[in-house]
Design goal:
Length: about 325
């Protein structure tokens, strides 16, 4: 249905005259008549009747009137949904319990006026493809994996070096420690089920294991964190890695322990990715917020910690933060 014709019909109804509707729409009176006639032909009914007093709405016109207004209202909402600055900022956080979701929650608290649409995509390839297609505005990822480069037009800003912690059950040999040297984990079984080859986290853990002689087991399907916690809680041998900023909930009887790792501390290098030609005005606000965080790599507070951290050689260097 021609929405210009619907708009013209409503202009005639609201003004009461074809001539006044033409002036309002900045078209000729003949154009108004043609549009209304075309709409009547499409609907197969007469909507308006010309009288000496102007245009009167017929019975069929009265039946169509509320639907005509709804059509134009739907058009307005559809246009607003994609207009820059009017639609929600769509951000991929990988997982809703991870530190990246916490970063976005902090942004929301600081800028409650900005509407957010939070999504979780599988891996960096899917996220970069979505950024290029414009289906998301930003993504938190570790970049770039060995042998790969970000596509032209995709920018990255390091936003958080998240320390890894060892998660153990109460019977594990390291359960009573407040912190352990990374080298001491050699020989212990670290279980991270469901790691998928070709993902950024698979590349990260492969480099970590090779660099420090760790035994990281990836056997078995990933049944989710609850199943992992059940196994870790009952095992005196198995442990796993979790991010310091990851929000975990487990049954009280599990008595799981989070143990800090040092000398050096392995950190997961989170960056914010976005398409350089993305026009959403809130994207700049998000980047500014994250860059100003005391946790951001390159900040004075982060510089104190960087002497005792490890991340893969392929992770984006801290001194190459792109200009905002």
């Amino acid at each position: 249905m021609d929405l210009d014709a619907v708009r013209t019909f409503l202009a005639v109804v609201d003004s009461g005259r074809f001539r006044e509707a033409a002036a309002e729409l900045a078209v000729t009176q003949q154009a108004v008549s043609k549009r209304v006639a075309a709409l009547e032909k499409e609907l197969g009914v007469r909507l308006l009747a010309r009288t000496a007093r102007g245009a009167e709405v017929t019975i069929d016109g009265q039946a169509f009137l509320p639907h005509a207004r709804a059509l134009l209202h739907a058009e307005e909402r559809a246009m607003a949904s994609v207009r820059p600055g009017r639609r929600a900022l769509r951000v991929d956080v990988i997982g809703r319990r991870l530190a990246t979701a916490g970063l976005l929650r902090g942004f929301h608290l600081a800028h409650p006026e900005i509407e957010l649409d939070v999504v979780t995509l599988f891996d960096a390839d899917a996220a970069v493809a979505a950024l290029g297609a414009g289906t998301i505005d930003a993504s938190f990822r570790a970049v770039t994996m060995p042998g790969r480069r970000l596509p032209e037009g995709i920018e990255a800003l390091p936003v958080l070096d998240e320390p890894l912690q060892l998660l153990t059950g109460p019977g594990h040999a390291l359960a009573g420690a407040r912190s352990v040297p990374l080298a001491r984990l050699a020989g212990h079984r670290i279980w991270i089920p469901g790691i998928v080859g070709g993902t950024e986290w698979a590349a990260y853990y492969a480099d970590l294991a090779a660099r420090f002689g760790l035994t990281i087991e990836v056997t078995g399907p990933d049944f989710g964190p609850e199943a992992l916690f059940d196994t870790i809680a009952d095992s005196p041998e198995l442990a796993t890695f979790v991010g310091e900023g990851t929000r975990l909930v487990w049954p009280q009887g599990h008595d799981l322990r989070r143990v800090a790792v040092h000398g050096p501390t392995p950190v997961y290098p989170h960056s914010l990715l976005w398409a350089a030609d993305n026009p959403h005005p809130s994207l700049r606000t998000l980047r500014d917020h994250l860059a100003a965080s005391p946790e951001a790599p390159g900040s004075p507070a982060a510089a104190v910690r960087e002497a005792d951290i490890w991340s893969p050689a392929w992770a984006r260097p801290r001194d190459r933060r792109p200009a905002l």
